[in-house]
Amino acid sequence: MTRAPRTAPDPHTAVSHRIAVLGAGVMGVGITALALGHGVPVLLVDIDEERLDRARDDIDRELRMAQLMGRLPAAADTRALELATGTGAVGDATAVVEAVTEIADIKATVLADVSARVRPGTPLISNTSSIPIDELAGHAERAEDVVGTHFMNPPYLIPTVEVIRGARTGENTMTGVGALLTVLTRRQVVVKDAPGFVTSRVLHPMINDAARVVQEGTATVEDVDALMEGCLGHPTGPLRTADLIGIDNLVDSLRVLHQRTGDEGCRPCDLLLDKVRQGELGRKSGRGFYVYQEENR
Amino acid sequence: MSSFDTEATEKEILRFLEARTKRPWGTDADLFASGGLSSLFAMELVVHLEKSFGISVRGADLRLDNFRTVTAMTALVERLRTPAGGATDE
To answer: Where is the Carrier domain (chain B) (predicted)?
Structure first.
């Protein structure tokens, strides 16, 4: 690999931030790229060594895509990235972003572990798309340190972040997460805690319905997206959005919503479940509702 | 690496474009003009040029304008293949 020329640090970036990101999946990689792109060093942790091996290339590709689209400065690269298979080194992080699998037990275990390792008062940010924050906060040593953010994919492209304040989230934690999002040039909208908050509670059942319409033979995938884009102004169409979210993540999130709200519209439809069984998970696997070129994932 | 075959480079880029988009393109057509390709496709072009021509597109060269036309891409490939101060292999 060719080494990029060394450049002086950007004086506009806050050198004091150093975040740990847990989970090198689609969102962990995206949030890491966003942070590196704004001069914030990142320790990225994943227990899956194979995934961690791919992470540097994945992040590099995401940074370059962001640069190509003029969303991140040209100097951004992966030099300030550290990779680890364990949480041993999270102690000096100024904030921790948890982006592991959307299953409450896994998130709870991870939060319990890191809350015992960081300095008290370090924001523990869960990037859950649907699990209530207060439910997760109960597993941390200090519930007041836990807050939710809901970055969308890809984080560098989407300027607004949903921030979820749990019943026990402290004022200092809110200030800390706000400061971090300011450095990342994201706008925050703070909402109350509930299953799926605002965006997932509204979007995910809608995507479920879009898939159900295809399942029932009313329209093709392309036509559903064309109508939602062309008539209703949805930017990418619900089914292309499903591919971007990851259909497995979407199903996990719908299950969380269904269990916690009892809303039958949140029960994942058969077409979504079939796609997951067949490994057609969306962009990340090369095929979901649409087919993607390997280079273009 | 003294000579650069502009015509062959253009031809290869056009071949790739036409295979991927299933439509013909002129060397000066704006690929990303309205009704054209998505900027997501630009990343595919970056990766293809890197693989096909052994170049690395970094930093300030990662601009959509460098990938807007076949002519612009050919010029970029030529410049990155023959760096100032003599050609060197990685």
So the answer is: 4-81
pLDDT above 90 for A255: yes
Is B57 buried (19+), middle (13-18) or exposed (0-12) by CB count in 10 A?
Answer: buried
User: Domain locations in chain A?
Assistant: 19-192, 199-288
Predicted confidence band at A64 (pLDDT cuts at 50, 70, 90)?
A: very high
pLDDT at residue B34, as a whole number: 73
CATH of domain A199-288: 1.10.1040.10
Of A63-72, A288-297, B71-80, least confident by mean pLDDT is A288-297
Q: Which residue of B has its CA nearest to A64?
A: B62
SS3 A141: coil
CB pairs under 8 A between A and B: 44
DSSP A61-102: HHHHHHHHTTSS-TT--STTEEEESSSTTGGG-SEEEE---S
CATH 3.30.300.30 fits A19-192, yes or no: no
With an 8 Å Cβ cutoff, are B48 and A61 in contact?
A: no
Contact B45, B63 (CB under 8 A): no
Asked if domains A19-192 and A199-288 share a fold, the reply is: no
* pTM of the predicted structure, to 2 decimals: 0.83
Of residues A275 and B36, the one with the higher pLDDT is: A275
Backbone angles phi, psi at A65, to 5 degrees: -60, -45
* Domain range summary for chain B, segments of one domain joined by +: 6-81
Question: How sure is the predictor about A60, in pLDDT bands with cuts at 50, 70 and 90?
Answer: very high
User: From the CA of A68, how many Å to the nearest CA of chain B?
Assistant: 5
Is residue A258 part of the annotated active site? The answer reads: no
Are B59 and A2 an interchain contact pair (Cβ–Cβ within 8 Å)? no
| The one catalytic residue among A150, A204, A234, A258 | A150
ipTM above 0.85, yes or no: no
> Which one-letter DSSP state was computed for residue A284?
G
pLDDT value of residue B84: 53
pLDDT higher than 60, residue B64: yes
Q: Within chain A, where are the H helices? A: 26-37, 49-68, 104-115, 133-137, 171-183, 199-215, 221-230, 238-245, 247-261, 270-277
CATH 1.10.1200.10 fits B6-81, yes or no: yes
- A 31-70 residues with CB < 8 A to B: 61, 64-65, 67-70
